[in-house]
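Fill in residues.
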């Protein structure tokens, strides 16, 4: 350990940074302090990946907010837990109890939380999206065990980019090339009707990475998370936040 010189005792004390300790910190949200992040292009046209888009401390803060039952509520009517901010969402009737003619219940989601504004501002500061493309909608998915989501495109009522933040465990996502742009979200039930070319590309999503879909990757490629426990060890869990905006 280096011994201090006599002059060191008369230097002004360094202020301890609290930028990463609080999601409300101005040092985090101020564009001049945005991290220097570079997009990595992928084999899917229009698809880019940012590694370490958030820090481990910021990741813990986001997860702490989502798991605070006084502020957020998880949906448990699906096989995976989900959460919605902005717009509406459907709650499906229980398969065993509901009659065939039962319709899903459409509910109003809470607005985009103030706790996410620093992250959305970072999208702008790092050129992930423009100021007039700030997302108003977010869906959160929690994947554990062998859970996944079927191949789909995001609803065409939303524009581009579609932005996905991956937290906790790393996970591959598979993209399927389509013969043409196809509006087939999971909710619509139309996704299986999309015509695929047969070309598939797997992209590894590290923890705290950001996936950005523009152009063909947004409109004419489906994406999915495999329903398989292969490669997932004990305690594997991934939480994804998908941000979308409506023009």
């Amino acid at each position: 350990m280096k011994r201090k010189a006599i002059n060191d005792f008369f230097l002004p004390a360094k202020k301890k940074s609290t930028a990463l300790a609080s999601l409300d910190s101005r040092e985090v949200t101020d564009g001049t302090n945005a991290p220097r992040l570079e997009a990595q292009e992928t084999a899917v046209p229009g698809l880019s990946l940012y590694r370490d888009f958030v820090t481990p401390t910021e990741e813990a803060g986001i997860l702490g907010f989502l798991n605070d039952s006084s502020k957020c509520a998880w949906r448990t009517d699906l096989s995976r837990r989900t959460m919605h901010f902005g717009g509406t969402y459907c709650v499906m009737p229980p398969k065993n109890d509901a009659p065939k003619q039962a319709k899903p219940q459409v509910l109003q989601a809470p607005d985009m939380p103030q706790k996410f504004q620093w992250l959305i501002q970072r999208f702008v500061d790092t050129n992930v999206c423009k100021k007039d493309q700030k997302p108003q909608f977010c869906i959160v998915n929690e994947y554990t065990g062998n859970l996944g989501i079927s191949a789909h495109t995001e609803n065409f009522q939303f524009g581009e980019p579609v932005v996905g933040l991956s937290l906790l465990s790393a996970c591959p996502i598979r993209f399927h090339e389509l013969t043409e742009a196809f509006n087939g979200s999971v909710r619509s039930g139309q996704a299986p009707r999309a015509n695929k070319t047969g070309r598939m590309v797997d992209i590894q999503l590290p923890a705290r990475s950001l996936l950005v879909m523009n152009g063909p990757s947004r409109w004419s490629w489906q994406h999915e998370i495999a329903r398989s426990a292969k490669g997932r060890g004990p305690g594997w869990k991934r939480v994804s936040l998908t941000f979308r905006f409506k023009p």
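Helices lie at 26-29, 56-66, 117-125, 215-219.
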